[in-house]
Amino acid sequence: MGLRLYDIDSASLLLEKNYPQTFFSIDAGIQECVTQLGAPFGDGYYKEIFFDGIHIGFGHANLYERILFRFESDFETVEMHFALKGRSRAAGETLAATIDFETCQHNILYGNSICGQMQWEREEFQLCEINLSPDFFKKFLPDNSILFNDFRNIIEKGKSGLLTDINRRITHEMHALIDSIINCERKGVFKKIFLEAKIMELLLLQLEQLADNSVSNTTLRKPDVDKIYAVREFLLDNMDSNNTLVNLAHLVGTNEFTLKKGFKELFGTTVFGFWNDAKMEHAKKLILDKNMTIGEVSDAIGYKNQRHFSDAFRRKFGFPPSKLKKTYS
């Protein structure tokens, strides 16, 4: 079982990944590896985790220029694909149609010994892809939908393709699950249990969204969508900052009305509702994983008053942060 990447002009081999037969075997233990990306393509990494019929791959890179290469794989898989940043395009003789992804889009695809060409645009690039064995995936595929029945038929006939022709937007809940998968610091069997649970929850969200024909991508223009996602990223990267709707809107070149309306439409919550939830989840992680004091956590997420932080934490979780420390100490 392997994946090979070739330079499109010289046909020289750029990368070869040989996966063990345990890739899709049950009770094979957890394995991890990291591939570094360097010159002349860009600066970044791609990390892989595989266990019990599941393969997780996630990467982040800054590409120096547009990359075009040929790829070949010799295995069968169902892939939950999440394009977190950047644009890509795949086309080939074993694909029924070109597959395009843009920032914050997702879909589910089936691949059976795919080969073709892949193009990544020159820009920041981040993705998460979760591969499942077809037999494992089909156990969770609903059988009362034309859409899902068509995809099941694609798998059974061994023809590569997407579950749906239209990619969907990655929701706030999906982002949170992907973040927890990427940043999981557990070890051994506890890591396997945690990752499998999060993957099943993520698959549930994907299938529910894809099954809902009433869900439209958005009424917003693409430039406005990009700006709203930029605000989301800024908030997550600047937990300890103080912001107003006006300065957040001006930061990305939009107005307060568009930011409020768009944020609610894309993420189902207000800007500051999202930010407060993100702060509390981050605080919980700092307490549990970093063993920081309540005061240190309060400062890290921008609270000048430790009591105010404790009150906000209690409203979110139903108990104060001090109880969390005692429970897990």
UniProtKB/TrEMBL annotation:
Transmembrane segments: none annotated. It holds the Pfam family HTH_18. Keywords: DNA-binding, Transcription, Transcription regulation. It comes from the Bacteria. The keyword Transcription regulation applies. GO terms for molecular function: DNA-binding transcription factor activity; sequence-specific DNA binding. PROSITE patterns: HTH_ARAC_FAMILY_1 (PS00041), HTH_ARAC_FAMILY_2 (PS01124). Residues 229-327 form the HTH araC/xylS-type domain. This is AraC family transcriptional regulator.
